[in-house]
Amino acid sequence: MKIGIPRALLYFWYGNLWERFWKVIGWEVETSPPTDHQILKSGVELAIDELCLPVKVFLGHVRYLAPRVERIMIPHLIKVEREAYICPKFMGLPDLVRHALPSLKPQLEVIRVGPKQTDLVSCLEKAALNLGTTKSLVYKARKELRQPLKSPGQQMSEWFQVNNGETLGSKLTIGVLGHPYCIYDGFLNLNILKRLSSSARFVTPEMLPENFRGVGSGKLNKRLFWTMGKLQFDAVDWMLNQVKVDGFIQLVTFACGPEAIVGDLLERRIRDLKKPFLRLYFEEHSGEAGLITRLEAFIDLIKYRSRAC
User: Fold this and answer.
1) HEC string of the chain?
2) Residue 287: what pLDDT?
3) Which CATH architecture has domain 152-305?
4) What residues does each domain of the chain span?
5) Average pLDDT by consecutive 10-residue portion of the chain (309 residues)?
6) CATH number, span 2-144
7) Could you tell me the pTM of the whole model?
């Protein structure tokens, strides 16, 4: 059997774990290619206008995989940690796919995580057992996944840091904030990391050391209910106190409900600390010219302000 994994949404957190699990239990895995114009166009055709761009992209990846695999994994992520939730659109993702592509219902393999069971591997094991996988293979997968795997987001960040030698000596460091699919889907964000790495070093939330998790978000007056929002606050605290970044760029897509709140709180905290802040919005009609102009102007502003540069 061959199972397809869409290279979208929280694939950039869990993609390597998903791929490893299915391969260990004996399935062939096909991951959709990086987002391109055709995948985006396909997803936009399927989606209603009110959906955010990342969900539209996800639908395009599902449609790409449909004729190539027997099953398509749909991550139904409600909670991945206690006392925090993922985006509401993630909670309704299986229904969105069924509505947009009703003919694919028999192919969909929904992996539900939360609200009670938040261990991703346990949820994968349950799905595999329901598909007829033996308990011995499931146990083997559990054993192999005890060793921590780097996420695709971490791997991409490290790749840019290592392969852009001209910026390794730069004293200018930028903190890049946003949901993982906004940061690491190069087609969605018009290759912002590649453009940025040519003139400065950067750090992302996925580089956050484990001992800093919960620190920044714990300083809020009220508990934040969004996992990806909490990570951004933790990252800001780490970037300011340990990395000593010179400024922040936040990548956001239109129609993102949680970021309407989280983004405003982040901006207030960063501006209170007198750090330059740039928010870039993306949607399917975003153009490169405006992005390049704003990015170059922001880098120039930081260089003029920074004594190190």
Assistant:
1) CEEEECCCCCHHHHHHHHHHHHHHCCCEEEECCCCCHHHHHHHHHHCCCCCCHHHHHHHHHHHHHHHHCCEEEEEEECCCECCEECCHHHHCHHHHHHHHCHHHHHHEEEEEECCCCCCHHHHHHHHHHHCCCCHHHHHHHHHHCCCCCCCHHHHHHHHHHHHCHHHCCCCCEEEEEECHHHHHCCCCCCCHHHHHHCCCEEECHHHCCHHHCCCCHHHCCCCCCEHHHHHHHHHHHHHHHHHCCCEEEEEEECCCHHHHHHHHHHHHHHHHCCCCEEEEEECCCCCHHHHHHHHHHHHHHHHHHCCCC
2) 74
3) 3-Layer(aba) Sandwich (3.40)
4) 2-144, 152-305
5) 95 96 95 96 91 94 97 95 89 95 96 92 94 92 87 88 61 91 93 88 93 92 91 95 92 86 90 91 80 89 71
6) 3.40.50
7) 0.93
Domains 2-144 and 152-305 share a fold: yes
